[in-house]
Structure formats: C-alpha cells, structure tokens
Amino acid sequence: MIAAAPDGPVANLDQAPQIVLQPPPGDTVRHWLMPLDAMDPAQRRNHLRALRDILGSSLAFGPHEHPAVLASLGIGFDGLQALRLPLPLQQVFRRQAPAFVQGAVLRSAGQLGDTGPSAASHWDAGFGQGKTVWCLSLHGRHDGVQLLKEKLEKYLPKEFLPQPLTATHFNGPQGAPGHWVHFGYRDGITDVRIRGVNSRSSAPDPIDCEPGSLLLGHRSDLGDNPFALAAWPDLVRRFFANSSFGVLRKIQQEVDGFEAFVGGREDLRAELCGRNPDGTVLHPVTGDSANRWRLDLKQDPQGQRCPFGSHVRRMRGAGDAHGLDRPLLRRSVPYGEPLWQPDSDKEQERGLLGHFFCSNLETQFEHLLGQWADRVPLGSQDPGNAKDPLCGNHEPDGSTWVRANGTALSGLKPWTVTRGTLYLWYPSRFAIQQLIDDAEFKAIDNWPLAP
Ligand code: HEM
User: Do the bridges between strand 192-194 and strand 69-75 make them parallel or antiparallel, or are there none, so unpaired?
Assistant: First the structure.
C-alpha cells in the first residue's frame, strides 16, 4: 500500500515493519534479547537468515499480512556493527541518529531521567553495556506464541535464546473491558496511525500523524526528514526508507506506594493520568457522547479537563498550540498480575514492558521523557514541582502535586524503577534482505566516506 505524504516522498507501507502500522494480535508478548557476542559476522548473518526462515510469514510487513503470531526484529547499533554493516551506512546512522548510535545506556542519565535506582549501572542483565543483542518479539495468543517458541528452540542454538521477557494484557478491576495497566488505568485509548492509512486499530481516540513521524525517509510532523539522503545512491535510500526506531524499556512499578498516595480518591487517580481510570475524558463536554474518549487539548487551554502536570498532557506537550507534533507509538504490555486480581501474589514484581516506536529518538522518545516528563513543561500552569506523576523520577524525598481544586499534595515519589532500556532499529523488509545477502554491501564498503 502506498501512502502519499503531502510535499514529501511516497511511503511504501508494504515494506514497513507491521508492528508500526497496527496493533499486534493476541494478548501475550515475549521479547528475546538475543546475545551475539560469541559469533563471527558470517555466523550472525546465517542466524538472521535462519530466523527469517523459521519465522516465515510471522515476520510480517505492511498492513495486509495477518499472521496469528506477529514477529518483529529490532537491532541495536552494535548489533548492526556485529553484522559488519558497511562503514558508509554506519556513518549515516552516526550523523542522523546519534542517540541510536550511542545506545540507551549512555543516554539514560542525561536524556531519560534514569538516576538513583533507575541508573543504567543497576539495569537487568541483557540490557547492560557491552552486550550485543537483537530483540526478537513475538505477539499473539499464548498457545500460538508457545508453538513458534518451540520451533525456534528446535532450530536455534540454546545460547541464542535466553529466558525471554514475558508480558500479558489483562482486564480491569471486576473484569472491566480493555487492556489495563498497573496503577489502575485502562490503556490503549490512543493509538498513533499514519494519516490516510486504513489502520485496523480499534483505539477509541486514534491520533493521525505524517508517515515520517514513524517511518524513516519521509516528512515528519515536525516538518523534517533526516533520512531523505538526497545525495546518496538509491540503494542507500532504500535501505533506510520505511524502517523505524523502537525502544524497549522495562519499567518496574511500585504499586503499593502509588495506591497509598491515591488513597482511594478516584478523582485524584484520574487527575494524575489526565483521563479517568476507564480511559474516558475527565469532565467531557455535556451532551456530546461521541466525545467521551476524544481529548482535544485545544478546547482545554486552562488544563481543567486534562491537568497540565498529568501524564497524558505531558506526553502530548502541555502547550499543544500547534497540535501533536511529537507522536510516540506505544505497543507496551504489563508484566506481573494486577493487584486487583483476588489471588494475586503481593510480593511479585510487576510493571510495564514499554515498547515505543518513532522515527527520531532525540526529538520524539527522548523529548517526551527527558523534557516533558522530567521538567515543568513549557506553557504549563502547573504550580507544583512534581515530574510526570506516572513515570517521572521524582525527588526521593517527595514532590508536590497541586490538584485542580487548588489543594497541594506533597509526597509524590518515584513509583517506577527503570530496569533496562534498549534503543533498536526495526528494518524494512528490503533492509532485512540486504542484511542477509550482503553481496551489494561489499561494493558499498569501498565507497569513500562522505566528508
Ligand atoms: C509504568 C509507567 C506508565 C504507565 C502506568 C502509563 C500509563 C498510561 C496511560 C494509562 C495512558 C492513557 C491511555 C492511552 O492514552 O491509551 C498513557 C498514555 C501515554 N503514555 Fe504512558 N504510561 C507509562 C509510561 C510511559 C512512558 C515511559 C512513556 C514514554 C515516553 C509513555 C508515553 C505515553 C504516551 C505518548 C501516551 C499517549 C498520550 C496521548 O497522546 O494521549 N508512557 N500512559
């Protein structure tokens, strides 16, 4: 399918990793952080070929393939180097995507607010520095994922398939419908879609974006296109076009502490998120039932319906004068049982396997977390000193949140701990083929590096 971007090139969506185009099937996800260190480049390329062959049509691209289990593959910059990506192509990444090249470990303290217990030095094995990994994700129904897992185990060496990270969607308290997350909110209300594409997303409040906000090589909502690569040969442009950047971020949630702060005040829970726990808009315009979900911040310049300091308002950019120009696509799934499940184990670790997609890690993912979540956002009339109430790294001794009614509440703590983050590149169908069959790359390796 071809989507025309006004004033920009044409996005060939059939080449794009499917996870970026529509919500994946099923309720279960497994992420394997596959270590590559013990292999040489030729073996790694063989493994990529084997993976592609074993996964078959599950490794889906474009919006029209409908696998029961969706496989997606993200590769870190060191993973690309491990495949001996030609130096001129590495140079393109170095210039156009420095955060990706540096990796999340180096960016974490300065750009992502990961300090104290969230510091990269404490991250789980697999996310740590000096390890070369690919991230293979399988989304689907539990039984389908299990079958494909068994097939992978049969054909791939054990050391290539360590224990996966596993997460499963769940319903809300008393079986409330939809995908909910710990802290007691329904998620999946918004989903970012490429404008003009007939997405299968059934999100109640979808957000349309330019192709270039999710896919490389096209004009983004900020009006730029860092991977236009006009001066480069066609092969190079095609290698980057229609791929995407992804982030896997394991976030542990301290649910007890959060619940103690909320203290059963459901109106406060809603204010902290910027939506009611069931995802509906706080104080919708009366008599307009279609607007139960639709959050139009232009209609809320004072932050009465969606408070300036709330998670949702921060993640959209509090001023919002120019609409949504830094969209971030979310495919996150919670791990651990919800505390509202009657027989849930209170001591169990729980949290969110955050999975985010964008075309620019610096201006999208890092801007949302490092600026909008971590600082008082521009245009904000929020008089408190709290960071993002759901995922901000608040001062350990507590910050202050001022409620819509003017009451100041002190004691917001960091209720999340980052357990690891990976910056990944999700190649297009064309790019995966090029990585497997490096014949054309050999010629590229001899090109002079651009000055
Ligand atoms: C444990 C931590 C987190 C929890 C519990 C959480 C929960 C939520 C909830 C309940 C919503 C509203 C439902 C919806 O819009 O679908 C939401 C929206 C959103 N979250 Fe988070 N979130 C967390 C971390 C993050 C992180 C780390 C990011 C990345 C920067 C992020 C980015 C977003 C974005 C972009 C939206 C959509 C805002 C909009 O445009 O309406 N969240 N989150």
Answer: unpaired
Q: Which residues of the chain have pLDDT under 50?
A: 2, 4-8, 319-320, 451
DSSP string, 11-58: EEGGGSBGGGTSPPSSSEEEEEEEE-TTS-HHHHHHHHHHHHHHHGGG
- On whether the CB atoms of residues 119 and 106 are closer than 8 A, the answer is no
322-349: pLDDT as tens digits = 556 899 999 999 999 999 998 999 999 9
- 38, with CB counted inside 10 A (0-12, 13-18, 19+), is exposed
* Cα separation, 189 vs 247, whole angstroms: 20
Torsion, CA 38, CA 41, CA 45, CA 51, rounded to 10: 10
CA of 235 to the centre of ligand 1 (A): 37
Determine if ligand 1 sits within 6 Å of the CB of residue 183: yes
- For residue 181 and ligand 1, the question of a CB distance below 6 A is answered with yes
CB-CB contact of 422 with 73 (8 Å): no
What is the C-alpha radius of gyration for the chain, rounded to an integer number of angstroms? 22
What single DSSP character describes residue 124? P
**pTM surpassing 0.90?**
yes
User: Rounded CA gap, 360 and 130, in Å?
Assistant: 23
Our CA angle for 366, 367, 369, nearest 5°, is 65
**What CA–CA distance (Å, rounded) separates 294 from 310?**
16
Q: Which two tokens stand for residue 292?
A: 């139960």
Nearest-CA residue for ligand 1 atom 42 is 391
Q: Which two tokens stand for residue 384?
A: 């408190």
Residue pair 280/293 in contact (Cβ under 8 Å)? The answer is yes
Nearest-angstrom CA–CA distance, 299 and 317: 15
Q: Return the ligand 1 atom nearest residue 352 CA.
A: 1
Coil, strand or helix at 169: coil
The C-alpha atoms of residue 332 and residue 380 are separated, in whole angstroms, by 27
- In degrees, to the nearest 5, what angle opens at C-alpha 402 toward C-alphas 400 and 408? 70
185 lines ligand 1 (CB under 6 A): yes
